[in-house]
Task: inverse folding
């Protein structure tokens, strides 16, 4: 039995386009993968740990030491988040655009799980190694925005959303990535954009 983990970064509930498209994906996946487990991780549910002490623990580990006290507790909480993330062979992210980039809670997730020995190694001569490579993990990402859209000029913003997040995924070693996009813009046909995004979500989910 495989597992699909949906990690969502929108707090907008029924008003969220990224969550709506993700539901289309997970419903289609459930129909096409009978018996597979589907888990939803809402990054706004308070389960992500604060990482102030964790940041100190990270530098302790970098220096070859062992975190202790509050640092050890923060490190253990980060490890639990990392293990939840890597427990699934299939991962769906729903990512709305916030101010040209990703919601801060998704950046918190990235900063919590991206630790030496877990996500990456680093060599002074060879640079980074990508520790999630070779696992066979597949990733799908729903990217949504309301103002920015492909082909629009810089007066409508710049896409630091997908460029940043895709770069992070590849840095971890996750390179089997499918994208579902919803960018109707302020003057576009929202209904048609929804139909296209839903069709793309169903297409990917069936073979995911």
Result:
């Amino acid at each position: 039995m495989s597992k699909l983990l949906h990690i969502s970064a929108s707090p907008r509930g029924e008003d969220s386009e990224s969550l709506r498209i993700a539901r289309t994906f997970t419903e289609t996946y459930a129909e096409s993968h009978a018996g597979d487990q589907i888990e939803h991780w809402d990054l706004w549910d308070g389960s992500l740990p604060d990482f102030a002490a964790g940041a100190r623990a990270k530098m302790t580990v970098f220096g070859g030491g062992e975190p202790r006290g509050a640092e050890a507790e923060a490190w253990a909480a980060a490890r639990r988040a990392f293990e939840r993330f890597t427990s699934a062979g299939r991962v769906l992210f729903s990512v709305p655009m916030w101010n040209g980039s990703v919601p801060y809670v998704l950046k918190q997730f990235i900063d919590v799980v991206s630790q030496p020995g877990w996500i990456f190694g680093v060599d002074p001569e060879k640079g980074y190694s990508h520790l999630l490579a070779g696992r066979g993990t597949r990733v799908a990402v729903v990217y949504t925005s309301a103002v920015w859209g492909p082909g629009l000029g810089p007066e409508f913003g710049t896409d630091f959303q997908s460029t940043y997040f895709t770069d992070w995924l590849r840095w971890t070693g996750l390179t089997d990535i499918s994208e579902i996009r919803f960018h109707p813009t302020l003057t576009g046909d929202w209904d048609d954009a929804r139909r296209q995004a839903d069709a793309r979500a169903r297409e990917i989910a069936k073979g995911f």
About this structure: The radius of gyration is 18 Å.
